[in-house]
């Protein structure tokens, strides 16, 4: 769940049309049109990624007159599918995927069940990846993969590159070589597995 | 009782309120005293900064450390990226770290004849932060216009590692050679657990979001840092790696500079030094039975610090953070993620340090997801401006859902004392060399320090080092004062 309170205002005199903002926007809400950045206000989730990376400081975050909330409701009839997809991804449905918005895995899967098929569409629907912009891409990609979806990267964009390894997939030889150096691979795998299989604390609530 | 140490002044930044809005520092209030780390633990390492020789001592230590480093691989017509990140700039005011970075450039240019030396400074979650430091410490001038910030959402580059493809920031690696310049402050030990700490920036500060997300979601709380080692070990990075230089930090200040062509040799020395230098003060702060914790430093909530210990670590001081047999600290993103709707999903999740009865947020920045702290620790924020700052921050939109606002510092402290019934106060204000506390808390810390010192030396330190495959003898090669 994300409350959208801000949007970027473009200083058209400063904007050089370099497209950096377009390449970093996690929901594809800002585009260069006629050599100037243009914001789609209905898509923008107020994350400030564009404002933080514009090389010429042409963007400023300002308050929206019409703040709104984005959230995908987890409906009862979705629960069996949510459980199944989360189990395949080895992520507990109540696991917090995005720390900034406290979005749980079940909401991400609910978005997928409602038709979101890329990280960008999931972010648009739930707000994940629009807080710190940094930490939540892997669980999103894992959940999409577990739902049988192979998303396409935004063309020319830097939004994301690919899913990476999980602890469950670390080669045995690597574990053997480094376990004496303080990397507690097997112990952590056990912990992650226990979390994945834990009974939700308040199933179906909210 | 000793007077309080001057806290780090407020700093102008887009991530905090304007310095003039910080009207009162808690260290200046009656009943606050200071304890020097060197008095609590007389065997603390000797500090070169702050000291009589000023910043010159850091330059001399850097030059001496670099003397033994081979730079012959760098040719005059080649390019070099000095890779660094934001953390060092909050250490003892930031000037010592900036001076090490300036000295590295000077020495490399002098010894190799190379002039194409760039500073590439990574960030945490505040993408303009190192741009601010570059300006503030005039590193752009020193690097002849070739200093810039790099962020994890910038263009990426795939790096093939022994655990598959991971992703670096392209501009971190767009040179013939890289130099890894950092500091050894243990800081976010709750994340790296002092395992391969020196390697960590390859998985975080110089890495793309995919890699950082791997660290924080895919690997587990104690295996996470392997992502950094995998990147550093990759042929791609090995082919570019020239050497490394670290500002050696301790809870009382900078104790020297250590440099090496062999990152793992330096990693061993600084891993042991981190456990040895910070282990005692961290364990001592875990002895506090009840207190009001005050945030009063130009940094995001979890990063404000006292005697080298950050607030996030104090929030977990009820657990031994160095002991790897403890699966989870009371705070990491793994811990946070493992809280279900009705509480922790597994019993390994420890409670947030129950000694913290209340937090007074007198001055701290946004730019890091901090709602967890306000949710778990009763929090009073001083001033409407700071509340507004958090409410504007996309990473903290719910922080104020859990915190209350006081008009001023006096009111906040009066409220905290009245509600908690304690007058034990610890201030995270970055005071150099010591820690500002109330007299009642000072008494407790002074009384407990000798026994904690013995326990760490005899029992805990050998255990921490053994878990990391090393022993204390590795420290004999550490370059300090
Ligand atoms: S990043 Fe800045 S300069 Fe580049 S197109 Fe966007 S607004 Fe314009
Ligand atoms: S979603 Fe973020 S990056 Fe995209 S336009 Fe809005 S503020 Fe900018």
Q: Report the helical percentage of chain B.
A: 25-40%
Give the uncertain stretches of chain A in residue-range form: none
Number of strands of chain B: 19
Biggest sheet record of chain A: 2 strands, antiparallel
Strand content of chain B: 15-25%
Oligomer: heterodimer
Query: What is the count of helical runs of chain B?
Result: 17
Measure the end-to-end span of chain B: 29 Å
Helix content of chain A: 25-40%
Characterization of the model:
The complex is a heterodimer of chains A (206) and B (481). Chain A is of the alpha+beta class. Chain A is built from eight helices and six strands, in the order βαββαβαββααααα. Chain A has helices at 20-24, 49-53, 79-89, 105-113, 119-126, 137-146, 172-178, 185-197, and strands at residues 2-10, 30-33, 36-39, 59-70, 96-98, 103-104. In chain A, the strands form three sheets. Chain A has a two-stranded antiparallel ribbon with strand order 1-4. Chain A has a two-stranded antiparallel ribbon with strand order 2-3. In chain A, strands 5-6 form a two-stranded antiparallel ribbon. In chain A, helix 3 (79-89) packs across helix 6. The longest helix of chain A is centred in the C-terminal third of the chain and has 13 residues, at 185-197. With 481 residues, chain B is of the alpha/beta class. Chain B has helices at residues 37-40, 56-67, 95-112, 129-136, 139-142, 189-192, 209-218, 226-233, 235-238, 263-285, 311-314, 333-337, 371-376, 384-392, 399-402, 409-420, 439-467, and strands at residues 32-36, 79-85, 116-122, 147-149, 156-161, 164-169, 177-183, 241-250, 253-260, 291-300, 305-306, 309-310, 339-340, 343-344, 356-365, 379-382, 403-406, 425-428, 434-438. A seven-stranded mixed sheet of chain B has the order 1-19-18-10-15-16-17, sandwiched between helices. In chain B, strands 4-3-2-7-8-9 form a six-stranded mixed sheet, with helices on both faces. In chain B, helix 3 links the parallel strand 2 and strand 3 (116-122). The longest helix of chain B is centred in the last third of the chain and has 29 residues, at 439-467. The two termini of chain B are 29 Å apart. Classes of the chains: A alpha+beta (206), B alpha/beta (481). Chains A and B meet through strand 1, helix 2, helix 6 and helix 8 of A and strand 6, helix 7, helix 8, helix 12 and strand 13 of B. The complex binds iron/sulfur cluster (SF4) (2 copies). The site of one iron/sulfur cluster has 14 residues of chain A, from helix 2. One iron/sulfur cluster binds at residues 8, 25, 27, 29-30, 39, 44-50, 130 of chain A.
């Amino acid at each position: 769940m994300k409350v959208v309170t801000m949007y970027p205002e473009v200083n058209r005199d400063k904007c050089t049309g370099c497209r950096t903002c377009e390449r970093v926007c996690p929901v594809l809400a800002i585009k260069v049109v006629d050599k100037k950045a243009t914001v789609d206000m209905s898509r923008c989730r107020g994350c400030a990624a564009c404002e933080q990376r514009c090389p010429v400081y042409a963007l400023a975050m300002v308050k929206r007159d019409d703040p709104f909330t984005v959230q995908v409701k987890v409906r009862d009839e979705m629960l069996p599918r949510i459980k199944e997809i989360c189990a395949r991804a080895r992520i507990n449905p109540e696991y917090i995927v995005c720390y900034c918005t406290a979005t749980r895995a079940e909401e991400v899967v609910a978005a997928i069940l409602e038709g979101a098929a890329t990280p960008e569409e999931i972010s648009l629907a739930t707000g994940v990846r629009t807080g710190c912009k940094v930490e939540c891409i892997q669980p999103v990609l894992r959940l999409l993969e577990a739902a049988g979806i192979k998303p396409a990267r935004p063309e020319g964009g830097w939004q994301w590159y690919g899913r990476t390894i999980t602890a469950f997939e670390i080669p045995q030889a690597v574990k053997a070589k480094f376990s004496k150096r303080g990397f507690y691979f097997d112990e952590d795998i056990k912990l992650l597995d226990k979390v994945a299989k834990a009974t939700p604390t308040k199933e179906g609530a909210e | 009782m000793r007077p309080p140490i001057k806290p780090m002044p407020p700093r102008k930044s887009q991530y905090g309120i304007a310095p003039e809005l910080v009207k009162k520092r808690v260290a200046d209030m009656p009943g606050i005293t200071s304890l020097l780390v060197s008095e609590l633990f007389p065997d603390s390492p000797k500090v070169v900064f702050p000291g009589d020789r000023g910043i010159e001592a850091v330059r001399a230590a850097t030059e001496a450390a670099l003397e033994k480093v081979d730079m012959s691989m760098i040719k005059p017509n080649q390019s070099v990226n000095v890779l660094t990140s934001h953390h060092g700039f909050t250490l003892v005011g930031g000037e010592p770290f900036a001076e090490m970075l300036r000295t590295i450039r000077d020495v490399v240019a002098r010894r190799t004849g190379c002039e194409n030396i760039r500073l590439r400074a990574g960030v945490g979650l505040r993408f303009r932060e190192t741009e601010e430091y570059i300006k503030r410490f005039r590193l752009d001038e020193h690097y002849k216009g070739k200093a810039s910030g790099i962020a994890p959402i910038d263009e990426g580059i795939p790096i093939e590692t022994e655990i598959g493809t991971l992703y670096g920031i392209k501009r971190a690696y767009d040179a013939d050679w890289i130099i890894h310049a950092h500091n050894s402050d243990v800081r976010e030990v709750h994340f790296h657990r002092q395992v391969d700490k020196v390697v960590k920036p390859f998985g975080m500060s110089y890495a793309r979001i995919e890699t950082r997300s791997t660290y924080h979601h895919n690997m587990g709380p104690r295996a996470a840092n392997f992502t950094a080692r995998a990147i550093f070990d990759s042929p791609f990075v090995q082919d570019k790696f020239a050497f490394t230089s670290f500002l050696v930090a301790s809870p009382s200040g900078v104790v020297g500079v250590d440099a090496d062509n062999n990152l793992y040799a330096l990693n061993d020395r600084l891993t042991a030094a981190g456990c040895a230098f910070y282990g005692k003060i961290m364990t001592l702060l875990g002895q506090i039975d009840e207190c009001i914790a005050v945030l009063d430093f130009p940094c995001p909530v979890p990063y404000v610090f006292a005697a080298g210990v950050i607030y996030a670590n104090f929030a977990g001081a009820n657990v031994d953070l160095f002991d790897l047999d403890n699966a989870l600290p009371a705070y990491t993103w793994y811990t946070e993620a493992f809280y279900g709707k009705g509480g922790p999903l597994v019993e390994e999740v420890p409670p947030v340090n129950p000694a913290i009865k209340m937090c007074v947020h007198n001055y701290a920045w946004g730019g890091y997801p901090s709602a967890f702290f306000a949710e778990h620790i009763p929090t009073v924020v001083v001033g409407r401006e700071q509340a507004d700052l958090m409410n504007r921050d996309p990473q903290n939109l719910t922080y104020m859902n859990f915190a209350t606002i006081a008009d001023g510092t006096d009111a906040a402290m009066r409220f905290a004392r009245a509600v908690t019934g304690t007058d034990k106060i610890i201030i995270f204000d970055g005071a150099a060399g010591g820690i500002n506390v109330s007299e009642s808390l000072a008494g407790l810390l002074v009384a407990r320090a000798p026994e904690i010192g013995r326990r760490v030396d005899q029992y805990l330190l050998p255990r921490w080092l053994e878990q990391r495959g090393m022993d204390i003898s590795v420290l004999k090669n550490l370059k300090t004062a």
